[in-house]
Design goal:
CATH superfamily of the largest domain in chain A: Thiolase/Chalcone synthase
Largest sheet of chain B: 6 strands, mixed
Number of helices of chain A: 13
Helix content of chain A: 25-40%
Oligomer: heterodimer
Strand content of chain B: 15-25%
Number of domains of chain B: 2
Structural class of chain A: alpha/beta
Largest interface: A-B, 91 and 103 residues
Mean pLDDT of chain B: 95
Strand content of chain A: 25-35%
Order of helices and strands of chain B: EHEHEHEEEEEEHEHEHEE
CATH architecture of the largest domain in chain B: 3-Layer(aba) Sandwich
CATH architecture of the largest domain in chain A: 3-Layer(aba) Sandwich
CATH class of the largest domain in chain B: Alpha Beta
CATH superfamily of the largest domain in chain B: Thiolase/Chalcone synthase
Largest sheet of chain A: 6 strands, mixed
């Protein structure tokens, strides 16, 4: 490499970060679920390569929502995100024109039905259609931790005083990978097996500055252990026309991978001089991979932290694994139904390919849903 | 407290590489940055990858996770818990990715989330070789920037201004999954409106003019670093801003045909500053200007340290 291609300049002096005086909060949440329900039994009937597949018993997913193919339904990734953003804004004190940031974080990036867009950012197009003309826009992509990553970035932008508020939105036309899996898999150990548990959705959250510790994101910390970044790969299939997700399930969900969260979260709490028990979480929301997975991660947390886990909120039986939206869909549905109490303290635990682990701690009191 | 560039590097595909990969290009540039700065890869707290075009049109995991692995950052926290506990994600905003990531990095550094942010920007045609697709306009090229805090008054990045033009996207890059057959891993379509170049010049001109006015910027002492966003873009932008064309830098890709895409700001930075990281005598500062699909635009002033 020519010498001029790398340049370095030593920092002139280590500067301390600014004192952390601001916090963010969940101001509102919104969701859109396609009306069409696909029971697991009906999906299993389409998996010609594996007759009698016990999908519901293995995953706990009873049914999922599936997008409407008709263009007028507006249920591609972009359309699902747009509807969720509009629902969130309807639940918010803010108008679209008041938004400082719009972040889109979907894995599936379909717009105009079948076009998988790499640029422009979906956020730019969404902001334009919503009328958020003053907003900074960009997409984040981080597998199933996408929305969590969007919230992490927006939280830091609000805490730095660079913006006052912002919208993190994701529309997931996830069942596109289920269609490919149904057409291609030949046994229950197939790397596309996990694709059969996904569901479609759009979810949006609006964050602004917190003025009250009883309505605040206390912390959101994320980490990527990159050694295992190749355990779950999404790309077009080379066997049929469709997009596919290939997951090494055995390695992905091995116990030591699940110990990443308690190890990382435990170290974080130790630095703060606290214990998990002292955090007094009222609810925990795991990634909605399946009922067994959720129970297993909670048992792992219980064993590692040496204390019972809080009440676990789930939506996976009804909506499947909705990828980036899963944690926030669970929050939205339970807050809306009243099965999660306002003023309670929530712990959201991501588990995404990368491998991404972490913890989001928030007290949610006044959020519009 | 400001955000400064402590290392920058480019990576071009090695000659005769049968399978160039944006992950390998980004990781090579990342490793060159950490080596040049004399810091351990495990000291990187956040890696933000902003590349758009990628091998096999991969959409999961984040390309950043794979770059992180190839750059040797926080491989396994259970085996070797790195104090910085590196985190990575992709930030996608077309040509404006690097400046968008700088905007985020300023917040990450300001809040003490991390002491070091590594930005990587690499684009490679999904088939692995841009020269095999005459309709694809971009070069296979990778780059990285290492950002840290500095206490030096006046140094580093100023405010990042981002703005979108309402209306049509101007240019877009997508995979048409209804027409890809079994070739989806190697295909990509890039479209451009007839007037996209004119609109890009309009957007960039407005952005720079407003930024100069609101930030009290003397453009006469400013070296503009931009990309070859459309044919004649550099010359037209210079003319609209009333600048000597030599004061607007938009280097060609060193890695073969096609225009630099997300890596363009790093390429421009490396061409603008000397081996000592300083600017030519005629200039006090750089003004990064990126415009592209959306239409989206971003700009920010940068003053090297010790100047």
């Amino acid at each position: 490499m020519p010498r001029e291609e790398t340049i370095t300049a030593a920092p002139s002096g280590a500067a301390a970060p600014a004192p952390d005086t601001r916090s963010s909060r969940f101001e509102s949440l919104g969701a859109y679920l396609p009306p069409h329900v696909l029971p697991t039994s009906a999906l299993v009937d389409r998996v010609a390569g594996v007759p009698g597949l016990e999908l519901e018993r293995i995953t706990g997913v009873r049914e999922r929502r599936v997008y409407d193919r008709r263009p007028e339904a507006g249920e591609d990734s972009y359309g699902l995100a747009l509807k969720a953003a509009r629902d969130c804004l309807a639940n918010s004190r803010y108008e679209a024109g008041e938004l400082d940031v719009v972040v889109s974080s979907s894995i599936t990036r379909f717009k105009n039905r079948d076009r998988f867009h790499f640029e422009p950012s979906l956020a730019t197009m969404l902001a334009g259609e919503l009328g958020a003309h003053a907003a900074i826009t960009f997409d984040v992509s981080n597998a199933c931790a996408g929305m969590m990553t969007g919230v992490y970035v927006l939280d830091r932008m609000i805490r730095a005083g660079v913006v006052r508020n912002g919208l993190v939105v994701s529309g997931e036309q996830a069942t596109k990978v289920a269609e490919t899996a149904a057409a291609e898999i030949t046994d229950s150990y197939d790397p596309q097996f996990a694709s059969l548990s996904v569901g479609d959705s759009g979810v949006a959250v609006l964050l602004d500055e917190s003025a009250d510790a009883a309505d605040r994101i206390h912390y959101i910390e994320l980490m990527t252990c990159s050694e295992h970044s190749d355990l779950c790969l999404g790309m077009p299939s080379d066997r049929t026309q469709g997009i596919a997700l290939y997951t090494d399930n055995r390695k992905m969900h091995r116990e030591d991978r699940l110990r990443l969260w308690p190890a990382f979260h435990g170290d974080l709490l130790a630095k703060l001089g606290r214990t998990f028990e002292q955090e007094e979480f009222d609810y925990i929301v795991q990634h909605q991979v399946g009922t067994r997975f959720i129970a297993f991660v909670n048992r792992t947390g219980e064993a590692e932290f040496g204390t019972p886990m809080p009440e676990s909120l789930a939506v996976v039986e009804e909506f499947g694994n909705t990828a980036t939206t899963a944690h926030f869909l669970a929050l939205h549905q339970h807050l809306r139904a009243g099965t999660a109490r306002r003023g309670a303290k929530f712990l959201l635990v991501p588990a995404a390919s990368g491998v991404v682990a972490g913890a989001l701690s928030a007290t949610i009191t006044s959020a519009g849903v | 407290m400001t955000t400064v560039i402590t290392a920058a590097a480019l990576a071009t595909p090695p000659a005769h590489d049968p399978d160039p990969s944006p992950v390998r290009l980004a990781a090579r540039a990342a490793r060159d940055c950490t080596a040049a700065a004399g810091v351990s890869p495990d000291s990187i707290g956040v890696l933000v990858n902003v590349g758009v075009y990628r091998e096999s049109n991969l959409f999961e995991p984040a390309m950043a996770a794979m770059v992180q692995k190839a750059a040797g950052i926080n491989l396994d926290y259970l085996v070797r818990p790195a104090p910085a506990a590196g985190f990575s994600f992709d930030l996608m905003n077309g040509a404006c990715g690097v400046l968008g990531a700088v905007h985020v990095a300023q917040c990450l550094l300001h809040t003490g989330t991390t002491d070091r942010v590594l930005i990587t920007a690499a684009d490679v045609h999904p088939c692995g070789d841009a020269t095999r697709d005459a309709a694809y306009p971009y070069a296979d090229l990778g780059a990285a920037l290492l950002l840290e805090r500095s206490a030096e008054p006046g140094a580093g990045f100023g405010r990042v201004r981002q703005r979108n033009a309402n209306g049509r996207a101007g240019t877009a890059g997508y995979l048409d999954t209804a027409a890809m057959g079994r070739e989806g891993r190697s295909r990509i379509t890039v479209t451009r409106d007839a007037d996209w170049g004119v609109r890009l010049v309009d957007l960039a001109t407005g952005l720079v003019t407003d930024h100069a006015r609101e930030e009290g910027l003397d453009l006469d002492r400013t070296l503009v670093v931009t990309s070859r966003a459309a044919p004649g873009f550099r010359e037209q932008l210079a003319e609209r801003l009333g600048l000597d064309p030599a004061a607007v830098l938009a280097p060609e890709s060193p890695g073969g045909p096609g225009e630099p895409h997300t890596a363009a700001p790093v390429l421009g930075y490396l061409r603008a500053v000397g081996a000592d990281g300083g600017l030519p005598d005629a200039y006090d500062r750089l003004l990064f200007v990126s415009v592209g699909a959306g239409l989206s635009g971003a700009c920010a002033v940068y003053r090297p340290q010790g100047r």
